[in-house]
């Protein structure tokens, strides 16, 4: 009897372990190699393949639960070099701080803002426009950069001051020409 109960217990143990759900790390991933589907392989084996260079960042992988095949570099546990993610802390803790301090802001945008303020002195106006354009270009290339408002401010202020300067020059030249005509009587003066 004791002999039978050991077998019963052993068989129940083996039956229970075989009925248990498979480990999530066991044989769940498929990957493509030379246009063919390979697998299933475990997560640990997939990591080894990455470390050996068999699976590259653009190698397509899949497991049950994913809608479609994805590049291997989108699978978080795989050891690919990823650019560090910018957090809110890295860019300043709140919007007021980012407004007052040049945290995460384009250097061109900062220059455009100050040159926009100084453009009232006329000379910095063209530089405010130029730095504002450079800032917008940099912000569009790197979406993590801030400062679009300062860049636009520099362009607007520089443009307004240049327009006022050109109007002033035109009016001044016109008045001088008018006074010249009044004094000398036009083109046919003898």
Protein architecture, described:
The chain is α+β, with helices and mostly antiparallel strands and 190 residues long. The chain has helices at 2-19, 43-52, 95-100, 107-118, 125-141, 148-184; strands at residues 29-33, 36-41, 60-63, 70-71. Strand 3 (60-63) and strand 4 form a beta hairpin. Helix 4 (107-118) runs antiparallel to helix 5, helix 4 runs parallel beside helix 6 and helix 5 packs antiparallel against helix 6. The radius of gyration is 36 Å and the shape is rod-shaped.
Question: What can be said about this structure in brief?
Answer:
With 190 residues, the protein is of the alpha+beta class. 53% of the residues lie in helices and 9% in strands. Helix 4 runs parallel beside helix 6 and helix 5 packs antiparallel against helix 6.
How are the SSEs ordered, and which strands pair?
Elements: H1 2-19, E1 29-33, E2 36-41, H2 43-52, E3 60-63, E4 70-71, H3 95-100, H4 107-118, H5 125-141, H6 148-184
Antiparallel strand pairs: 1-2, 1-3, 3-4
What is the straight-line distance between the termini? 144 Å
Number of helices: 6
Q: Please indicate the percent range of residues in DSSP E strands (runs of 2 or more).
A: 5-15%
Could you tell me the radius of gyration in angstroms? 36 Å
Q: Structural class of the secondary elements?
A: alpha+beta
Biggest sheet architecture: 4 strands, antiparallel
Strand order in space, largest sheet: 2-1-3-4
- Order of helices and strands, N to C? HEEHEEHHHH
């Amino acid at each position: 009897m004791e002999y039978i109960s050991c077998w019963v217990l052993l068989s129940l143990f083996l039956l229970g372990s075989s009925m248990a759900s498979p480990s999530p790390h066991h044989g769940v991933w498929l990957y493509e190699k030379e246009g063919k589907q390979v697998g299933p392989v475990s997560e640990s084996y997939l990591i080894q393949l990455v470390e050996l260079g068999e699976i590259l960042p653009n190698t397509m992988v899949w497991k049950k639960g994913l809608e479609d095949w994805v590049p291997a570099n989108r699978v978080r546990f795989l050891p690919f070099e990823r650019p560090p993610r910018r957090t809110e802390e890295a860019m300043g803790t709140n919007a007021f701080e980012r407004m007052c301090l040049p945290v995460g802001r384009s250097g061109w945008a900062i220059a455009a803002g100050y040159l926009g303020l100084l453009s009232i002195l006329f000379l910095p106006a063209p530089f405010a426009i130029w730095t504002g354009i450079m800032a917008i270009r940099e912000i569009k290339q790197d979406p993590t950069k801030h400062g679009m408002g300062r860049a636009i401010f520099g362009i607007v202020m520089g443009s307004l001051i240049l327009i006022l300067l050109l109007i002033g020059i035109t009016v001044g030249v016109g008045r001088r020409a008018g006074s010249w005509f009044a004094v000398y009587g036009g083109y046919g003066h003898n």
